[in-house]
Amino acid sequence: MKPIYLLLLFLSPIFGFAQEMESQVALTGVWELDLEQQMQEVQENQDSKFTTMPGPVKEMFLASLKTRKYIFYPDGVFEAFWLLGGKSHVLGGTWEFEFPGNLSLSPENGQEKIYAVSFHKETLKLASRENTENVLHTLYLKREVP
After folding, report:
1. Which one, of 51, 27, 22, lies nearest residue 115 by Cα?
2. How far apart are the C-alpha atoms of 119 and 34, rounded to whole Å?
3. Which residues touch 33 (CB under 8 Å, ≥6 apart)?
4. Are 140 and 65 in contact (CB under 8 A)?
5. Which SS3 state, helix, strand or coil, does residue 42 take?
6. What are the φ and ψ backbone dihedral angles of 28, each rounded to 5 degrees?
7. pLDDT for 31-73, tens place per residue?
8. Range scoring the smallest mean pLDDT among 22-26, 102-106, 142-146
9. Could you give phi then psi for residue 98, rounded to 5 degrees?
């Protein structure tokens, strides 16, 4: 019994590395906001800044959610795109998947953000590990359909 335990102990870093690589590959690609999931989350959270937005601002914010795209390149670079108030916005930087389920995003002109990552069927859930001033603390993304 002791040799099996030692073998499992020896192989556990290899299994962890394999899981990390699999998650990194699963994350790579083009994602768009899952608007249905996102709105359900926002509406369930009564403390959300979204609920206190004036009507026109809320409409502009909703329109921007419909245009959001996130691209995670295999080389560790990411880009995010969206339209807000008729203006195009781009955020770029680097990303790194950290086992066991953390995504670190380092924008070119900003502070690093860490998200807890979970995959649910066709949806990717990114939950902020920090308390932020952003309207969205959790992002629901789905693969872009070509």
Report:
1. 27
2. 13
3. 65, 66, 68, 69, 139, 140, 141, 142
4. no
5. helix
6. -65, 135
7. 999 999 888 887 777 667 777 888 888 889 889 999 999 999 9
8. 22-26
9. -115, 120
Contact between 70 and 78 under an 8 Å Cβ cutoff? The reply is yes
User: Across the strands, what pairs with 82?
Assistant: 89
Residue 139 amino acid letter: L
The amino acid occupying position 132 is: T
Euclidean distance between CA atoms 4 and 15, whole angstroms: 15
**69-72 and 138-143 beta bridge pairing:** unpaired
DSSP state of 76: S
Placement of tokens 């556990």 in the chain: 12
CA distance linking residue 34 with residue 98, whole number of Å: 24
Considering only residues 62 and 79, tell me which one the structure prediction assigns the higher pLDDT.
79
Average pLDDT, the chain: 81
Q: What's the token pair of residue 146?
A: 């070509």
Supply the pTM of this predicted model. Answer: 0.75
In 3D space, the residue among 31, 41, 70 whose CA is nearest the CA of residue 135 turns out to be: 41
